[in-house]
Every structure is written in C-alpha cells, then in structure tokens.
Amino acid sequence: MRKCRYEELIDGYLLDKLKPEEQTDFEEHYFICRSCFDKMSERDEIVQILRREGVLSPPAEGSAEGERPVSWIRRFLAFFKPRR
Amino acid sequence: MRSLSPHPYNDYAVGNVSKDLPLDEAILGYRNVISFRVRKALGSSTPDWEDVVNEILMQAIEKVKNGAFRGESSVGTFLYTITSRRIIDHIRQKTKVLRHAPEPAPFPDPHDETEGRERSLQIVRAVEKLKPKFRDVLYLYYYKELSREEVAQELGISPRRVSERVNYAIKLIKKSVQA
User: Fold this and answer.
1) I need a surface site. Which of A8, A82, B22, B132 has the fewest CB within 10 A?
2) CB-CB contact of B23 with B12 (8 Å)
3) What is the CATH number of the domain that holds A32?
4) Is residue A15 domain-resident?
C-alpha cells in the first residue's frame, strides 16, 4: 500500500512541532484520511503512555554508537567488505 | 493491535452523499476524529471537552437536516470546519468567563479506567522488552522531545537511522501488544 505523504507530519503534530499552516493542513487531512488518523491515534496512545508511566530512562553513559568499541565480529566482517 | 479509533470513513469521506448509511449516522461515526481534535486543542484535562464534541455533532446533524450540507465537499471537510469554529468559540467563551474559577474534575468511568490501565501495562511491558538502542531513541525523541537531528547527534547515528528506529520501535510495541 502506498504511504500517504501526510504520515511524515504525524510525529510533528503530536509533539506540537509543526508550523501553524502545516498543522492546519494536517488537521484538515486527518478528517478525510482514515489511514493517517488511525496511525496518529495509535502512536499518540503509545507516546502518552511512554511519558506518563516513566518507563524510559536516559541512555547509559557511552551509549553513543560512535563511542562504542567495535566488536571483533564487526572488525572481521569489515575485512571482507569491498573498499570504495 | 485493535483499532484505537474505529470510524466509518466510508464513501461520504470523498464527497458522495447518496450512500446506504444515513448521513447523520455517518456523522456520528466521526466522533473519535472530532474528539481527538477537540482534546488536542483544549487539552484532555478540560472537563467539558466531551460536551464540546457532542455540541459539534448535534450542530452538524442540524445543518444536514436544514439542508446546509449539500455534499459539495466531503463530510470530513464539513465536520472539520464546524469543529474548528466550535473550538475557537469555546476558547473565546472560556477566556471571557470566570478565568480563575476552578473546574470540577470529571468522574472517570471505572470500566474505562481498568481497561486503560491494562492497556498501559501491556505497552509498558512491550517497551521494557525493547533493546536499549530502541528505548534510547524513544526516550530522546518522545520524552525529551529532541529533534531527529539532535537525537542523531546524541546517539552518534544518522537522522535517517533515528526515524527508522523510532518507527521500528513503535512497530515492535504494536506487535507485542497484539500478540
């Protein structure tokens, strides 16, 4: 199924990050697009619960992937990767 | 995952009005969409948001009966216009009248509360099962409300990868809740 181009606005709408004209466009759109409305309300429910229940915590120290040591298996596989 | 927002976006939604479902029933099918829009605009802690939704539905049905809706636009667009106007009116009234008066808290329906609680627990369990790389991205993006680019910088990955992880994490949560 083709993705509706408005789907990209769902997160921005839920997080109040859209420009006023984008927000109005998207609000008008979800009154006529069932797919976008369903996706948005599903995501909204999850986001509300994530915020309310405090189930998430800050990333552990050094969790940035650039800082993680490269595992031996990745180094091994990288050896066979064609170099550009 | 069960559909959280069933509503009949049927042929009315593309502007055809002479279909099997009576128009007033089709309008009532938009309750979830209108409720979402009203709650988002007024805040779900506003006790009278449900009254506003009912007023919008009544007003729309009234307009249909009076022949004010002729099917030139889709029912969705027609309802969107009524909803937006009603929200603006409600905000105007509220700012005029008793700005400092405390609002009575609504009485929650115990059945809805239990169901909602169970659902929250299912989602919490699903989140706890996620790998840290997915939880980290959800925390920064939805909880801390960082932009995609800021999350990318924080985690040392590309913005595109951030979107992929957010979408995949949501997909995993939905799958886990469905199971």
Assistant:
1) A82
2) yes
3) 1.10.10
4) yes
